[in-house]
Write a structure and sequence with these properties.
This protein is α/β, with parallel strands linked by helices and 506 residues long. The strands form 3 sheets. It has a 7-stranded mixed beta sheet, with helices on both faces. Strands 8-9 form a two-stranded antiparallel ribbon. The chain has 3 domains: 34-175, no CATH class; 181-304, NAD(P)-binding Rossmann-like Domain (Rossmann fold), CATH 3.40.50.720; 309-502, no CATH class. The protein has helices spanning 3-11, 34-60, 64-72, 82-102, 114-138, 146-176, 191-202, 237-243, 259-270, 308-328, 330-343, 402-409, 417-423, 436-439, 459-463, 470-482, 486-502; strands at 182-187, 208-215, 230-233, 248-251, 273-276, 291-293, 296-302, 349-355, 361-367, 427-429, 455-457. Helix content is 48%, strand content 11%. It contains 17 helices and 11 strands.
Length: 506
């Protein structure tokens, strides 16, 4: 069992009072994939443009700038104007996008197999290619060399298949590290539910993490399960789901006709996706699209809105800022490393176990600013704590080294956390990652701050860094989560620069 799973079992206080988390509106009953679908469509368009350009330049044996000049002067392909070429290319783009959409190539990656995705990609390209060649024949566009058309089609097929393969490999490796996985509960304990659980276990590339069975009623459980697998009943379903950061619920057992609509409405309120193993359930599943998870057909009754495109942009900005910071500050990092070794005995870096998104444990990297046995001496200075409640902070901590005080003052000790950002454990902006002993004392409402990837800086760092109040700390983190946008991240980053140069750290 991984450390992450051990932690998830240990930190939740099952006796915590129930608390209704405030969540952002869940959106429509069906997932609205417009943001991420448009992103993939844009990539398809760029791929077609690049393939057509490369094929034309290769066949014409000319350079990029000469090709652009010929295109502008309508001399790239004699007998065909630039406008005609653009219209034909636009028709091919629209045909490929519409064909791919109808083949569900813009649906979530986890729901389709690799070979099926590659086959459908090739099929969509060939259908679009046939439409393209047919259109060229009908409009008598004989001036356009068929060799360029065929080479363009071949390049599009190779590039699209390769792009989807690279993205799938990237996602699967992230799933293996516990990043981007979806926590799921299965409602039902019968043979169908158990078979579905085995399917999820056999297909780790789907990115699902099983969190337990929900018992419909003692009489429905016709097969005995280990008690560790049955984690609750319908009455406690959403309390357990909140405590364990559940993303999706599957109903895989016979329910009363009134139960599923109630669960569906509650899932909508909580922002948790809901699927059923097919049944009509009083008409709720009528005319809905069936999505296969392995060999199991499922019907989505509710899928919460997920800003996938914005989060992809956030991740891109994280990689850009972290890489740039490490590159620019590399001489400073080297000098700090040497200074730490000269200042006091011990390692240069200190790796602290922190709790990240959905309770996942990771090693948070910092420059060492304390003496070697600092943790053993913590009990001696508990009475000096200057923060309220769960937080622990001592301004003149005797365990901090001379160099460590300077590093903390200007937040230089946190620069190595850009490595955590590159690995995906942290973001540039987000709630600070807490330590395990803090989270064990959280109430249910406080766990909301673990719904997102933790960050190096955030609202608390720029608004109330010296405020000892734990409630203020939580309030600012929740305000960030509820009002998050890429623009807000950029504003926090800019304000953080001022805070760092002001030397307000401690």
């Amino acid at each position: 069992m991984s450390s992450s799973h051990r932690w998830e079992r240990s930190f939740v206080n099952e006796s915590s009072p129930a608390f209704e988390w405030e969540r952002s509106p869940a959106g429509e009953w069906e997932r609205n994939p417009r943001g991420v679908s448009r992103f993939w469509m844009l990539l398809d368009v760029l791929t077609i443009l690049a393939a057509a350009g490369a094929a034309t330049l290769y066949k014409k044996e000319i350079g990029v700038f000469a090709g652009l000049k010929s295109f502008w002067n309508d001399t790239l392909i004699p007998g065909a104007t630039s406008w005609e070429l653009l219209i034909i290319l636009l028709g091919f783009m629209l045909a490929l996008i519409e064909t791919s959409r109808r083949m569900h190539l813009y649906t979530p990656l986890r729901l389709s197999g690799f070979l099926a995705e590659q086959r459908l990609t090739i099929q969509a390209c060939l259908i679009s290619g046939l439409l393209l060649t047919g259109s060229l024949y009908l409009v008598h566009a004989g001036a356009i060399p068929r060799s360029i058309v065929l080479l363009t089609l071949g390049l599009v097929i190779v590039c699209l298949c390769l792009r989807r393969l690279i993205y799938r490999v990237y996602m699967h490796r992230a799933f293996e590290r516990g990043i981007g996985t979806r926590n799921v509960l299965i409602v039902g304990t019968g043979p169908e539910a158990q078979a579905f659980r085995r399917q999820l276990t056999r297909l780790p590339h789907l990115g699902y993490s099983f969190k337990g069975f929900i018992e419909l009623s003692p009489s429905v459980s016709n097969v005995r399960l280990g008690r560790e697998s049955v984690v609750g009943t319908l009455d406690s379903l959403f309390d357990y789901a909140r405590k364990h950061f559940v993303d999706e619920i599957f109903i895989a057992g016979p329910c009363n006709s009134s139960v599923v609509p109630e669960v569906c409405e509650k899932a909508r309120t909580e922002g948790i996706d809901l699927r059923v193993i097919p049944d009509m359930y009083g008409g709720l599943a009528w005319k809905r699209h069936i999505e296969y998870i392995g060999q199991f057909p499922t019907i989505p009754l509710h899928c919460s809105h997920f800003p996938e495109l914005a989060l992809m942009l956030k991740r891109s900005l994280d990689i850009f800022f972290a890489s740039s910071a490490l590159l620019i500050l590399s001489p400073v990092l080297l000098l700090i490393s040497i200074a730490i070794k000269l200042d006091s005995p011990g390692p240069i870096l200190f790796v602290s176990e922190r709790i990240g998104k959905k309770g996942r444990v990771f090693g948070c990297i910092k420059f060492r600013t304390m003496i070697q046995d600092a943790e053993k001496q913590r009990s001696k200075i508990l009475s000096m704590n200057e923060r309220d409640g769960i937080l622990f902070k001592v301004k003149n901590d005797p365990r901090v080294t001379r160099l460590g005080r300077m590093l903390r003052k200007y937040s230089l000790d946190e620069v190595p956390q850009f490595l955590n950002v590159l690995s995906g454990d942290m973001s540039i902006v987000g709630p600070r990652p807490p330590i395990a002993r803090e989270v064990r004392e959280y109430e249910l409402k406080h766990l909301r701050r673990l719904d997102v990837v933790p960050g190096i800086t955030g609202l608390w760092q720029i608004e109330a860094r010296q405020d000892p109040s734990f409630e203020s700390y939580i309030m600012l983190d929740l305000a960030y989560i509820e009002n998050w946008s890429v623009w807000l991240d950029l504003k926090i980053i800019l304000r953080t620069v001022g805070v760092v140069f002001a030397g307000t750290g401690s």
